[in-house]
Amino acid sequence: EIVLTQSPGTLSLSPGERATLSCRASQSVSSSYLAWYQQKPGQAPRLLIYGASSRATGIPDRFSGSGSGTDFTLTISRLEPEDFAVYYCQHYGSSLYTFGQGTKLEIK
Amino acid sequence: EVQLVQSGAEVKKPGESLKISCKGSGYKFSSYWIAWVRQMPGKGLEWMGIIYPGDSDSRYSPSFQGQVTISADKSTNTAYLQWSSLKASDTGLYYCARRTDTLFSYMDVWGKGTTVTVSS
Q: What does pLDDT average to over chain A?
């Protein structure tokens, strides 16, 4: 079973700064099956990135995804106030899904 | 509009049974897998399992296999998550989510969640 480890657990930044969130898989995975979600308090998760680097419909271009193999990154180029939330990576493989434990992006 | 509407919050006692629902609309329900995801209070997302309403083919996370049952009724466009004997540790927020029909297999539509509280 693949384990996804996200880092850091909490990231404290200011609006306008650049955020870099990491997701590391316990073994090499297909980029096609790596997604990122954003969750705000009291809301359901929202898809941001699929296939490791493709933005979902309606997602601003300040969000970008990259990576391959075991290391994947979600980058937010210039943080807006509405971007402060929890972010999860997710992998699908062998009929099973796995989520990372999440990174909380908080206002510094 | 594509949406998943989940049943309301539940408060149950340990040992009781429970079945919560997720009704799809705005798309062909039988053709898309529906997943269930748990979020315990203050914690992250945990994938529980998934079902294909067209033929009720299902898969479970090893962590939840035998602990819950996922089912679906394509005639009513509804998926279900059920417990036969609840424990306090089943307290949490349960989301259903639709899996995209593309190769990428991500969850593209989410319900708002059903809160389950198990307490004596």
A: 97
Which residue on chain A is closest to B95 by alpha carbon?
A44
Verify whether the Cβ–Cβ distance B107 to A98 is below 8 Å.
no
Q: Determine, for residues A50 and B47 on separate chains, whether the beta-carbon distance falls below 8 Å.
A: no
For residue B42, give both structure tokens.
């203050």
DSSP annotation string for B55-110: TTEEEE-TTTBTTBEEEEETTTTEEEEEESS--GGG-EEEEEEEEPSSTT--EEEE
Mean pLDDT per block of 10 residues along chain B (120 residues) reads: 98 98 97 97 97 96 96 98 98 97 91 98
Instruction: Write the single-letter amino acid at B54.
Output: G
Work out the number of other CB atoms within 10 angstroms of the CB of residue A87. Answer: 25
Give the pairing type, strands A86-93 and A96-99. antiparallel
A45 touching chain B per CB within 8 A: yes
Instruction: Give the residue carrying structure tokens 């990491």.
Output: A22
Condensed to tens digits (0 to 9), the pLDDT of residues B91-117 reads 999 999 999 988 888 999 999 999 999
**Is A46 touching B (CB cutoff 8 A)?**
yes
Mutate to test the interface with A, among B105, B109, B114, B115 (most CBs of A within 10 A): B105
Cα–Cα dist A45/A38, whole Å: 5
Q: How many angstroms separate the CA of residue A44 from the nearest CA in chain B?
A: 6
